[in-house]
Design brief:
The protein is mainly alpha-helical and about 475 residues long. About 40% of the residues lie in helices and about 5% in strands. The protein has a seven-stranded mixed β-sheet, covered by helices on one side. Helix 17 links the parallel strand 3 and strand 4. The chain is elongated. The N and C termini lie far apart (about 105 Å). The N terminus is likely disordered.
Length: about 475
C-alpha cells in the first residue's frame, strides 16, 4: 500500500486538531479549581480524591494541545510576537498543570496541599491569557471590541476603530476604493490577512499592501481581473482549497464580487469617485443596491441637529390662545404648532412663535386671520420644514419673505390668492419638495418657471377627475308587461 500523505500533510493535519483539543485542559482545570474550592469544607473533603485524575488529564491534554499548536504554527501566516506569546503561555499552562498533578501524587507534595487552590487560580490566569492571545491570532486583536455594545465600550475605554455607517449618502459620490471596496475587504478578508495573521504573507489593509502582494507575488493586475489572484480565488468552487474566503468562513455576496471585478477592471484606482469612473449599466445596478438606506425611524421633515427643549412659558402662552403645541416624537425637542382650534390667531400673535423658532418644525396656520404681514415672522422660523397656510388671506409680496426658511420642504397654499411674484420667490427655498395650490388660481407659466428652478419639486394643483367606469354606473330599464 502506498503512503500518499507527505510528512508535511500529517503535520498540518495534526496541527489543525489544535482548536479541538485546546478547550479540554481549559474545562478540566476549571472543574479542578471548583472541586478544590469545595473540598476545603470538611463536609466535602471527599471531592479532593478526584483531583489527581483531573489534573493528570489536564496536563496530558495541555501537552497534546501544545504539540498540535506548534505544528499548526509551522503553516505560517501569523504575527511572530503574538504567536510566541501564545506559545509560551500555552507551555506555561502545560508545565503548571503537570506540577499540580505531581503535588497531588508525590508524598512530599501532599504537605503543600494548602498551596493547591492558589496555584490553580494562577493556572487559570495563564489559561485566560493564553486564550486571549490565541483569539487575537485567529480573529484579530479587536475581535471583541468590534462587537461591544456602546455602553460597554464607554465603560472599558475602548472605541471602535471605524463606524459601520457609510461615509456617503449618494453612491455616485462614493469613493470606489475607500468607501466601497475597503469595507468589503475589511469585513471578509482582514481576519486572515492583517498584521497579526499573515496568511500567505499577504496583508490587505491598504492598497499599497495589496499591490505589494504576498508569498506568491502581486494579487492584482491592473485592468485584468481574470488574471488577478484577488478576484480569481473568489470564484473558485466551494471545495477548492485555494478558494478565498475558505469554506466555513463568511463569503462575499455576489454584488461584492462584481464590485471587486469592476474596480480591478478600472485599474484599481484610489481616491476616485463612482461618477468619475462612469459605471456601465451592469455595475450601476450593483451600486444602486449599495446605496445606504434610511433608518426606519428617520423622518426627513425633522432636522438632524437637536436644539434645547422648548421654553415651557412660551408653550403655555401659545396654549392660552387655543394653539396646540405637541412634540413631533417621543423625547424630541422639536414641536408642531397647529391653530385648528384657534381660528382667531392673527398677525399680532405671531410674536408668540419667536421663542420657539429653533424647535418649531411643523406649523399649521390654516383658516386663521393671518395676512401677508405674518410672512416676515414666519421667515424667522429657521427650523421650519412644513408650513400650511391654506384658506388664509396670504397673497405674498414680491420680496422673499420665506427665504429664511431654508429647511422648508412642504408648503400648502390651497385656497389662497397667492401672487405670481410670491410663487417665483419660492425658487430660493432649495429644499422645497411639495407645493399644494388647489384653488389658488396659480398661473401656468409661473408654475413652469418655478419647476425649472426646482426640478425635484412636486406641484399639486388639485382638481382631479376620476375616469368613470362602467361598474360605477347603474342602468335602469323599464319593465314591459
Amino acid at each position: 500500500m502506498k503512503i500518499l500523505a507527505a510528512t508535511e500533510n500529517w503535520n498540518l493535519f495534526i496541527g489543525r486538531i489544535h482548536p479541538l483539543i485546546v478547550h479540554l485542559p481549559i474545562g478540566i482545570l476549571i472543574i479542578a479549581f471548583v472541586l478544590a474550592l469545595l473540598s476545603r469544607s470538611s463536609k466535602r473533603a471527599g471531592l479532593r480524591a478526584a483531583l489527581p485524575l483531573l489534573l493528570l488529564t489536564a496536563a496530558l491534554s495541555a501537552v497534546a494541545s501544545c504539540v498540535a499548536g506548534y505544528l499548526l504554527s509551522l503553516d505560517g501566516g501569523y504575527d511572530e510576537q503574538l504567536l510566541n506569546t501564545h506559545l509560551w503561555l500555552g507551555i506555561g499552562v502545560a508545565v503548571s498543570s503537570t506540577l499540580l498533578y505531581l503535588l497531588c501524587v508525590v508524598p512530599a507534595g501532599k504537605r503543600l496541599v494548602r498551596l493547591q487552590l492558589p496555584l490553580l487560580a494562577v493556572v487559570l490566569v495563564l489559561v485566560s491569557a493564553a486564550g486571549h492571545y490565541g483569539g487575537s491570532l485567529t480573529h484579530g486583536d479587536d475581535y471583541l471590541v468590534q462587537a461591544m455594545p456602546p455602553a460597554l465600550q464607554a465603560f472599558s475605554g475602548k472605541q471602535k476603530a471605524a463606524d459601520n455607517a457609510p461615509a456617503y449618502t449618494n453612491v455616485a459620490d462614493a469613493r470606489i476604493y475607500e468607501d466601497l471596496v475597503a469595507p468589503v475587504l475589511s469585513s471578509r478578508c482582514y481576519g486572515c490577512h492583517n498584521a497579526q495573521k499573515l496568511k500567505g504573507g499577504l496583508r490587505l489593509e491598504t492598497l499599497a499592501l495589496i499591490r505589494q502582494g504576498g508569498e506568491h507575488g502581486p494579487v492584482i493586475k491592473d485592468s485584468m481581473p481574470e488574471e488577478s489572484e484577488l478576484f480569481k480565488r473568489l470564484v473558485l468552487s466551494d471545495n477548492d482549497e485555494h478558494r478565498m474566503p475558505p469554506k466555513g468562513k463568511p463569503q462575499l455576496a455576489p454584488r461584492e464580487v462584481e464590485l471587486l471585478y469592476w474596480w480591478i477592471a478600472q485599474g484599481a484606482p484610489i481616491g476616485k469617485t463612482v461618477k468619475e469612473l462612469k459605471p456601465n449599466p451592469r455595475i450601476q445596478l450593483v451600486l444602486e443596491a449599495m446605496t445606504p438606506g434610511k433608518s426606519l425611524d428617520h423622518n426627513e421633515f425633522v432636522p438632524d441637529a437637536a436644539p434645547s427643549a422648548p421654553d415651557k412659558k412660551s408653550v403655555a402662552a401659545l396654549e392660552a390662545k387655543g394653539v396646540k403645541v405637541l412634540p413631533v416624537a417621543a423625547n424630541s425637542p422639536f414641536v408642531s404648532v397647529t391653530c385648528i382650534n384657534a381660528t382667531g390667531f392673527s398677525d399680532a400673535d405671531m410674536t408668540l412663535l419667536h421663542p420657539l423658532r429653533s424647535q418649531l418644525v411643523w406649523l399649521d396656520l390654516s383658516g386663521t386671520r393671518i395676512t401677508d404681514a405674518a410672512l416676515p415672522a414666519i421667515g424667522q422660523l429657521t427650523a421650519l420644514t412644513r408650513l400650511e397656510l391654506e384658506h388664509t388671506a396670504v397673497k405674498g409680496p414680491a420680496a422673499t419673505p420665506l427665504a429664511g426658511c431654508q429647511e422648508l420642504r412642504f408648503l400648502n397654499l390651497s385656497g389662497t390668492a397667492c401672487t405670481p411674484a410670491f410663487l417665483n420667490t419660492l425658487g430660493k427655498n432649495k429644499k422645497l419638495q411639495q407645493l399644494y395650490l388647489y384653488q389658488a388660481n396659480a398661473n401656468a407659466n409661473t408654475l413652469r418657471q418655478l419647476q425649472q428652478q426646482l426640478p425635484k419639486l412636486r406641484i399639486d394643483t388639485g382638481g382631479y377627475r376620476l375616469e368613470q367606469l362602467a361598474s360605477d354606473t347603474i342602468i335602469y330599464k323599464k319593465k314591459t308587461v
